[in-house]
């Protein structure tokens, strides 16, 4: 008979054995263990189709489990992004035994609610468990729903993590949804496992998984809080071995483990002992034991060594790390997925990419979608004599999403449209090798991160709930987020824009330069500067290459440009500001008028916009599918500052006299110009001198204005430029007026004492240009690893 293994100290001490209700609970556990458990296990394959959905209401019987235990108070302390719940108790919890709950991508809320129900937690505590770990972060189940509920366990809630294997290792029992890819990792570790089924959301692969695993004595199946509690009560505790450090990776060789579909390929009977028993492994040499464990691990992953008698074992499997350490050159040729087309029908190709989706329709057929960059192709494995073995299909089914694979096969052209891949061909797989396996549980799915607002709206109208991946989650896991088609497209557009900028400027005889980013003083003036110590001296990060590109003009280069990082220590928590961005800086000699610089701006950006529209149509369509936008209208148009202010006043917008335009005024002016002149791109000239940098040349006829300009796109500033002061005395006076210590820029000023031509230039932020060109709502989408006032990682 089984009983609660400990007594808790409360205001009212209760001995479990002295309570008649508890004696009834012990009798109920014994009956379930003796009678119900064998029936549930043996009848699973027969009654699986008739199982009902999860029950959210615990039964009356479940509510009576261990009534003698007074629940402990759970205190919640929130620590973003994880939610920690700690146990407040005076009792001795004894040996720490953990229960770990892992889920798949379906039915997340229901499984967590099932495990978090009072009957299940009470049953776990009665069986001697002290610690319950539950995943949260995908779905709508949040700790706030349970923070006031009492419980008898120490409970931790945490978000998805790449270190999930560590949780599996330390657990004495694992509870998993049938769709979780952690099932086979659990089996590999030899951990007892309770699989919670949900037939209404179960695909063929999960159903076959349940049937294949039904005969394993260390596996248990349950459905809903009621059956889950009963299953926990009736489990054989002899199988629950507490984790000891250093043993987490050992294979339990006394258990005969197989992966889904393996039963059809393995001809051994269910009752046969494993060919290499645990006792034999102990008696054998260390090398033999290690070889057996490696073979068992590979078989659980569906690897090529699962069946040494498989004549096709060389066609699939996990590639050893040593073979990828630049061991040899084979001369093989890989084909880009984006190049696969119908004209290649019948050709044998070799591709490498990420396993975006794995779909098993039966034990003999698996569909594998491989992604490389923005392109995807569907690969098909069908059991075929002398070509594809059942073990190879099993191996393909065992791959985790985002694992890197090599696929070799023959191109075929199906007779219908392929909706799940970009390439309208299929690869009939002949060889399949895993180069690097991804962890079973990713922080989020690529599919979830690729959905558009339209999809969310349609799902909401139909009552369907989709997973929305937030911006912080994306940026915290940027390495995965960048794999989405939209992000791939955004940064390809960004790259093409820079390439076209270089092409145009080089044709116009500009020289690309590279200036220092650690300087002695502020390059723009003001307090928006990152200060640091440089070998015992004060220094700062360059706010722009302004000073050095002007010195390059004085050095006789005539026309220069730079593409490089710019640092601004501004506390701007907006959609368009970053603390570090890519600056596009241009400087050139002026012969007569600073309009010459404006001419370069118009020619340059007209060329960039034309290039992107003509050469990035595919990428722009991909972006538009997730973030719909209207293409920009761009025609050359120039207005003076006063003309722009007058348009705003006529529209009822008040502007501070001789003040800068705020965000709302910029957007309004952009709308007015677009409506009146049919362009989203225009230049505003002659800004007031007091709102411009110290090195800006004043107007000859009115010193309150300057020879400066800003460029706007979709109502937001993207460029700031001007004619520069090249006279050292005027430059010194302006620097002092702006509060700049002249000593820190003395070398800059001195460079104009040796003869300096009139010159001007401009600077643009690459991320902001891309954001506005693509109609995106946040500049962080256009920064590979954005840095803002709150983000310094990854």
UniProtKB/TrEMBL annotation:
UniProt feature coiled coil, ranges? none
Q: Where is the composition biased (Basic residues)?
A: 279-290
Q: Which reaction does it catalyse?
A: tRNA(Asp) + L-aspartate + ATP = L-aspartyl-tRNA(Asp) + AMP + diphosphate
- In residue numbers, the region (Disordered) covers 251-314
Which GO CC annotations does the UniProt entry carry? aminoacyl-tRNA synthetase multienzyme complex; cytosol
Q: Which GO terms describe its molecular function?
A: aspartate-tRNA ligase activity; ATP binding; hexosyltransferase activity; RNA binding
Q: Which PROSITE patterns match?
A: AA_TRNA_LIGASE_II
**InterPro entries on file:** Aa-tRNA-synt_II (IPR004364), aa-tRNA-synth_II (IPR006195), aa-tRNA-synth_II/BPL/LPL (IPR045864), Asp-tRNA_synthase_2 (IPR004523), Asp/Asn-tRNA-synth_IIb (IPR002312), Glyco_trans_28_C (IPR007235), NA-bd_OB-fold (IPR012340)
Q: Name one Pfam family in it.
A: Glyco_tran_28_C
- Gene3D superfamilies (UniProt xref): Bira Bifunctional Protein, Domain 2 (3.30.930.10), Glycogen Phosphorylase B (3.40.50.2000), Nucleic acid-binding proteins (2.40.50.140)
SUPFAM superfamilies in alphabetical order: Class II aaRS and biotin synthetases (SSF55681), Nucleic acid-binding proteins (SSF50249), UDP-Glycosyltransferase/glycogen phosphorylase (SSF53756)
Q: Which CDD domains match?
A: AspRS_cyto_N, AsxRS_core
GO biological process: one example = aspartyl-tRNA aminoacylation
Top-rank taxon? Eukaryota
- PANTHER family membership: ASPARTATE--TRNA LIGASE, CYTOPLASMIC, ASPARTYL-TRNA SYNTHETASE
**Protein name, please?**
aspartate--tRNA ligase
Q: Which organism is it from?
A: Rhynchospora tenuis
């Amino acid at each position: 008979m089984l009983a609660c293994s400990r007594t808790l100290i409360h205001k009212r001490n209760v001995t479990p054995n002295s309570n008649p209700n508890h004696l009834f609970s012990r009798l109920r556990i014994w009956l379930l263990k003796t009678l119900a458990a064998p029936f549930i296990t043996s009848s699973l394959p027969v009654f699986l189709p008739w199982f009902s959905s999860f029950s959210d209401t615990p039964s009356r019987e479940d509510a009576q489990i261990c009534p003698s235990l007074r629940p402990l108070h759970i205190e919640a302390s929130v620590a973003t992004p994880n939610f920690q719940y700690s146990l407040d108790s005076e009792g001795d919890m004894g040996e720490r035994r953990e229960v770990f709950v892992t889920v798949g991508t379906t039915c997340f809320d229901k499984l967590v609610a099932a495990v978090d129900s009072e009957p299940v937690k009470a049953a776990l505590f009665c069986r001697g468990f002290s610690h319950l770990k539950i995943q949260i972060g995908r779905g709508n189940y949040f700790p706030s729903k349970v923070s006031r509920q009492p419980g008898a366990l120490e409970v931790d809630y945490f978000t998805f993590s790449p270190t999930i294997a560590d949780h599996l290792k330390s657990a004495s029992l694992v509870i998993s949804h049938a769709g979780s890819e952690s099932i086979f990792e659990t089996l590999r570790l030899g951990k007892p496992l309770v699989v919670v089924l949900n037939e209404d959301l179960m695909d063929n692969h999960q159903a076959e998984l349940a049937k294949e695993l039904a005969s394993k004595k260390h596996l248990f199946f349950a459905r809903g809080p009621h059956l889950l509690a009963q299953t926990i009560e009736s489990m054989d505790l002899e199988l629950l071995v507490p984790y000891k450090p250093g043993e987490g990776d050992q294979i339990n060789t006394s258990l005969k483990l197989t992966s889904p579909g393996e039963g059809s390929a393995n001809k051994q009977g269910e009752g046969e002992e494993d060919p290499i028993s645990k006792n034999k492994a102990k008696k054998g040499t260390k090398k033999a034991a290690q070889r057996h464990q490696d073979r068992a691990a590979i078989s659980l992953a569906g690897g090529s060594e699962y069946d040494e008698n498989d004549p096709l074992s060389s066609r699939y499997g996990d590639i050893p790390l040593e073979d990828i350490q630049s061991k040899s050159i084979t001369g093989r040729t890989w084909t880009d997925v984006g190049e696969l087309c119908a004209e290649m029908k019948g050709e044998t190709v070799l591709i490498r990419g990420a396993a975006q989706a794995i779909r098993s329709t039966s034990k003999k057929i698996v569909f594998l979608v491989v992604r490389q960059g923005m392109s995807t192709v569907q690969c098909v494995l069908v059991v075929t004599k002398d070509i594809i073995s059942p073990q190879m299909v099993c191996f393909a089914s065992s791959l985790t999403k985002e694992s890197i694979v090599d696929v070799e096969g023959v191109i075929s052209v199906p007779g219908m449209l392929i909706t799940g891949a970009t390439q309208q061909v299929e690869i009939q797989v002949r060889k399949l090798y895993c180069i690097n396996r991804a962890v079973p549980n990713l922080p989020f799915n690529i599919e979830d991160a690729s959905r558009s607002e339209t999809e969310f709206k349609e799902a909401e109208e139909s009552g369907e709930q989709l997973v929305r991946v937030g911006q912080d989650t994306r940026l915290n896991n940027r390495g995965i987020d960048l794999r989405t088609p939209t992000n791939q497209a955004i940064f390809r557009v960004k790259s093409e824009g820079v390439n076209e900028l270089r092409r145009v400027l080089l044709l116009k005889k500009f020289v690309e330069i590279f200036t220092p980013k650690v300087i002695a003083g502020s390059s723009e003036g003001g307090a928006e500067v990152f200060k640091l110590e440089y070998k015992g001296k004060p220094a700062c990060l360059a706010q722009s290459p302004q000073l050095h590109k002007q010195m390059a003009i004085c050095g006789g280069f005539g026309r220069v440009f730079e593409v490089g990082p710019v640092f601004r220590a501004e506390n701007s928590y907006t959609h368009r500001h970053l603390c570090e961005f890519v600056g596009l800086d241009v400087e050139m000699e002026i012969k007569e008028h600073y309009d010459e610089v404006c001419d370069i701006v118009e020619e340059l950006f007209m060329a960039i916009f034309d290039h992107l529209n003509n050469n990035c149509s595919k990428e722009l369509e991909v972006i538009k599918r997730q973030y719909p936008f209207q293409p920009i209208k761009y025609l050359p148009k120039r207005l003076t500052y006063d003309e722009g202010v007058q348009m705003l006043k006529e529209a009822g917008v008040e502007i501070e006299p001789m003040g800068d335009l705020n965000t709302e005024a910029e957007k309004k002016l952009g709308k007015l110009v677009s409506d009146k002149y049919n362009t989203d791109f225009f230049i505003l000239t002659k800004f007031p001198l007091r709102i411009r940098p110290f090195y800006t040349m004043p107007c000859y006829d009115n010193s309150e204005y300057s020879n400066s300009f800003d460029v706007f796109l979709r109502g937001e500033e993207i460029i700031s430029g001007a004619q520069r002061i090249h006279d050292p005395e005027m430059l010194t006076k302006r620097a002092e007026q702006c509060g700049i210590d002249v000593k820190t820029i003395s070398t800059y000023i001195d460079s104009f004492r040796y003869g300096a031509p009139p010159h001007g230039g401009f600077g643009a932020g690459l991320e902001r240009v891309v954001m506005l060109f693509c109609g995106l709502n946040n500049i962080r989408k256009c920064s590979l690893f954005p840095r803002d006032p709150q983000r310094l990682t990854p």
